[in-house]
Amino acid sequence: MTTKPQDAAAGTRPRKIGPELCGAERTRHLISRASAMEAAGWRSIGRAITFRPRVPMGASAHSYDKPFRTVLIIFLALSAIEVPIVDLITHPWPVVRFPLLTLGIWGVLTMTGMLLSYYTRPHAVGPTGIRVRNGGEIDIDLPWALIASVERKRRSLPDAPSLSLSGLGATQALNHVAQDGTDIDINLEAPTLIRLPQGDVTVSAVRISVDDIDAFLTAVRTHIP
Predict the structure, then answer these.
(1) Cβ of 204: how many Cβ atoms within 10 Å?
(2) Of the candidates 148, 145, 122, 134, which has an alpha carbon nearest to the alpha carbon of residue 60?
(3) Is 32 helix (H, G, I), strand (E, B) or coil?
(4) Angle 28-157-186 (CA atoms, 0-180°, nearest 5)?
(5) How far is CA 68 from CA 37, 65, 165, in A?
(6) pTM to 2 decimals?
(7) Best CA proximity match to 162, nearest among 202, 126, 217, 114
(8) Which of 59, 66, 33 is closest to 216 using CA atoms?
(9) What is the pLDDT of residues 160-183, one digit of tens each?
(10) How many other C-beta atoms are found inside a 10 Å radius of the C-beta of residue 75?
(11) Mind listing the pLDDT tens digit for each residue in 195-206?
(12) CB-facing half-sphere around the CA of 83: CA atoms within 13 A
């Protein structure tokens, strides 16, 4: 069967993971993911308080949130400032005041958990392999036996979701995007099934973003030539 040119072009564009859901099924999926992220945020707050980032023993941590860290901090600060302002404005009306205060404090804690999930769950390179993270939601274990090569390669993926797929069939790749692209290609020995909250995917490469590319590659070279 011959691949049409437009089909081949579509395969190179990043696309969302998982089937298109609608109605009650979509609502259940969104609630499930939101609950999981909320729980991960609370765990991240706990790990940050006890100074226990989720990095395997003997592994090095590699952050990836620098492109959007400042934006998250600004939103968090604005949300925190908003709480006493709302309290001041609604003070004469307790029926309005307490629900809004509760909602505001919950919002601040949720954003704090989101921000800390990137701090406590960085990418990791260690004796057993590479762990690819995306906040508290994604944790992909890639053992060294599964990895064919790791190379620096900047790929521009404007407007792509933070997690997306590129390619078709056996050449399909999973993209972990930050600042409109990826920095590192992790090529796998064979197409491999990876379980994600959005749905299971089979890929032959995982492309990730890291803040310090040289440090990441140096850590990799201590385990594979």
Answers:
(1) 18
(2) 122
(3) helix
(4) 85
(5) 18, 6, 21
(6) 0.84
(7) 114
(8) 59
(9) 888 999 988 878 999 999 878 999
(10) 14
(11) 998 888 999 999
(12) 15
DSSP reduced 3-state for 137: coil
**How far is Cα 19 from Cα 8, in angstroms, rounded to an integer?**
20
- Give me the residues paired with residue 174 across strands: 165, 206
Which is nearest to 78 in space by CA: 50, 54, 104, 103? 104
For residue 173, which of 18, 65, 20, 14 has the smallest C-alpha distance?
14
> What strand order describes the sheet that includes 60-62?
60-62, 123-126, 129-134, 138-143
Contact 38, 113 (CB under 8 A): yes
Counts for the chain of helices (H) and strands (E), in that order = 5, 9
Can you read off the two tokens belonging to residue 104?
A: 């505001």
> pLDDT tens, 100-144?
999 999 999 999 999 999 999 999 999 999 999 998 889 999 999
Q: Which tokens belong to 10?
A: 């579509």
Tens digit of each residue's pLDDT (9 = 90 or more) over 24-80: 777 887 788 778 888 888 899 988 998 888 899 999 999 999 988 999 999 999 999
- Judged on CB neighbours under 10 Å (0-12, 13-18, 19+), 120 is buried
Record the tokens describing residue 117, joined without a space: 């999930």
Angle at 18 between CA 174 and CA 44, to 5 degrees: 70
